[in-house]
Structures are given as C-alpha cells and as structure tokens.
Amino acid sequence: MSVSRSFAFAAALLVGLLASAVQAQKAFVRDDLAASGVTLEERLKREVAVSGAVDARALVRQAEALLARNEARRALPLANQAVIADPRSPDGWRLMSRVARAIDPKDYRERYELQERALAAAYLAYQRSGTKPDEAASLRTLAAVFEQREMWRPALTSYRLSLDAQDNAEARKSYDELREKRGFRVTENKTDADSATPRACFTFSEPLARGRVDFAPFVAVTGARADTAVTAEDSQVCVEGLRHGERYGIVLRQGIPSAIPGEVLLKNADYEIYVRDRAPSVRFTGKNYVLPRTGQQGLPLVSVNTAKVGLDIVRVGDRNLINTVHGSDFLSEVSRSEIKELSETRGQKVWSGTMDIKPDLNKDVTTAFPVTEALGKLQPGVYLMVARAVTGQAETATPRAAEDDDSDEGGSSAQWFVVSDLGLTSFSSGEGVHVLVRSLADAAPLRNVEVQLLAKSNEI
C-alpha cells in the first residue's frame, strides 16, 4: 500500500471515528425514535429503487419546489429517493419529515403513518447531522413535529437545544410562544380547608428544582395574622399555617426554578385565597376496637363543626362471623346500603339514633358514645357502628332512638368493635395452634374456657 493510500485510509478512519463521537455526544436522545428510524430506513431500502446516477441534492431541490406549491403528496416519492440515494445526508431526512407533515391524510390510518414517518425522519436527520447548523435545522424540524402532535415537553426541549446549537429568530419566537403557553407553569391550585391546619398548594407542570433550594423568597403572602411557612416537594409548593375564615393574597414570583434546565416561572402568578370553615364531618379514632363487658363502655368519636351525629349499630350473628371476617367490607368503610344489607342478611341492627355534640369551631372534638346507656347490656360478639355528621335539624336529647333519619348528612365513617370479657392471643407453631385467654377486666389468665376453631367453610 502506498504512503498516499495509507494516509487516505487513516484520514477516512479518523473521520469515521469523529462522526461516531459526534453521534455519541448528541444532546437529545430517544431510544424509541432511534428504533423507529431504523425501521423506516430498512423499509425504504426494500421499497424504493434508485439508480447509482441519481443526484440526491437535485431530488431534494425538486421536492422542495413541489412542497412550495402545496404538492406535498407528489413530493414524497422524491424525498424517498433522496434519502436512499444519500442516507447519510440530513437534508433528505429533514425534507421527508416536512413533506410527511404537510400531506393531508386520507384517513386515520394514513394520518398515523405520516405522523410516525415525520417523527422518525426528523430524528434521523438530527442523528445524521455533523455540524451545528445542521443540528439546529434538524432540531427545529423535530420540534415542529412534536408541536403538531401536541407533545409539548419534547417540543420545548428540541427548540431549546436548537437555539443552543445556533440562534434563529423564527425558532426563538416559536420557542418563546410555546414556552409561555406550555412550559413550566402553575397548572392547579387547591386549598385544604378541611384540615385542622389549613394550607394552600400550587401544582406545577414540571418537577421543581432539586437540591438545597429555598423557595420561600419566591412566595409572598399578605393578609395573614399568623406566620406562614413555605414547603416544596416534587411538583408542588405549599403555604402552610393558614387560618380558617381568613383571606390571603399569595404571589408566586417570577423565577421559581424547575428541574428542567434553563426553565423558570416566566411571570408572577397572583392568587386570592379564602380559607372556608371546615366541612361537618365525623370519624372514629381507629379501624377496630375491643369493648370490655366491664369497665369502659364508651366508643370515642372525633367530630368537626357538627352539633349532631347520627349512629347505626349492627351486631353480626355467631354463624356469620367467618363470612363477615373474610368479606371485603370487614374493617373498611361501609356505605348506608351496605349497612342495610348487613343488618338484613348477616346481622341485626340493634340501635339507630343520634347524639348531641358540643362543637368547637373548626377544631376536632372527641366525644365518647355511651354504649351501655344507649343499648343497655350488650351480648358478646362483633358489632359495626356507623357514624355520620347530621346537619339541618333542631337540637334533640342525647342520645335518642331514631329508626328513620332522613336529614342531610355529611360523610360517614364506620368502625368494627368486639364486645367480650375475654382477650384472645393465638399463634401457630410446628406443634399446632396455641391460644392464650386472659380476662379483659384484670388481665389474669383464665382456665377451663372452651375454644372453638372455625374453618373457612364455617364448620367447627
């Protein structure tokens, strides 16, 4: 091999290595689009025949002329031939993307195929770009396809990277307009007034900047009578420490940083917030409760902004324990219709009525429901109590029976409880199932207690 040929071979190898390095350093990488590009190129190689004498640049010029005359469908075969004639040139791929985007599809199937072709071709053009001007032009084409398909985030990223590669007035205008409408912005705001400690939260379209970022300087609060705190997590900024019945002016200031490089909140976002009083509600302190037959005879209820609570109590019969325990509603919230079904098929409603509450505006009030006073002596077994906030009624005695209560109601809450004077603890080992029985009155172990083990089939 001559010295000149050796030098030429080394130069070609160096150019190939440099091209590979450029390819590896692309700022925008999408594996799905790379795969689509491979599929598109292989398909064109099978379907498009091109003679060796074809000039790819001439084909691009002819197709450009047809595209300028709004004859995109006639331009597509020329674009196909151009990319096959010179697959390494980004010009033909950019042209194909523009042509596919300009064609008026005949039906939904063709629309999908053209959109996929436009996206894959634009990405191939970007991959094959070896200079900054080519990269910028290919990224502009890619951004236009993303924007047409309403894929706002990759469209914004493509525009930004295009401008990083080469400034362009038209691309900057498109980027600025799209960023204002679809970039990092506030998408939702909510006021949590039903919490004991109200707060106002603002959700952004993208995650917030991570790391040691103090968001407090970006949030201004007016009208507060107490100190507020600003917290931030994921895509949300919250103002804590608000008060019920107060009005606040909250300004999210321009410049709040996002996790997207170079994107911040473009302009101030002003909000007028009113923290209403908490909605009437009632809940239990836990999901289940053991009520001793002696000693404590009350079940604690936590209510908010209600002077009356409606109550239903249902006892489950012994022969329905297994079906109830394995049912989907056991230890979970139960609706009024499920209560009716439970009382008619698996148990019996033993009490229904109301209880008066002394409310403290917007504060949790804990009141013990006097089970013994209302129901008398309870039989051992499993019970379900459902409580609901009642509004719109005159005051009544505490507690009173009320079989049919058709008043307006707030949300309901349910609690299962067990009435027993026996505390059971069981565990299994290689020797079998061991059961320990103690008195709930004094915790002393009990002797001579008959224990029955029920199978899932409800057989003893």
Compute the average pLDDT: 84
Strand order of the largest sheet: 9-16-14-11-12-15
Task: State the secondary-structure class.
Answer: alpha+beta
Question: Could you estimate the helical fraction of the residues in percent?
Answer: 25-40%
Which regions have little confidence, pLDDT < 50, spanning 5+ residues? 1-23, 393-409
**Residue share in β-strands:** 25-35%
Largest beta-sheet characterization: 6 strands, mixed
* Radius of gyration from the alpha-carbon trace, in angstroms: 36 Å
Number of continuous helical runs: 12
Order of helices and strands: HHHHHHHHHEEEEEEEEEEEHHEEHEEEEE
**Strand segment count:** 18
Shape: elongated
Distance N to C terminus: 96 Å
Summarize, please.
The chain is built from twelve helices and 18 strands. The chain has helices spanning 3-24, 31-47, 56-68, 72-85, 90-102, 108-127, 132-148, 152-165, 169-182, 321-325, 336-346, 371-375, and strands at residues 186-192, 199-204, 219-222, 229-233, 236-240, 247-252, 269-274, 281-284, 288-292, 298-304, 308-316, 347-356, 365-370, 381-391, 400-401, 408-420, 422-429, 432-439.
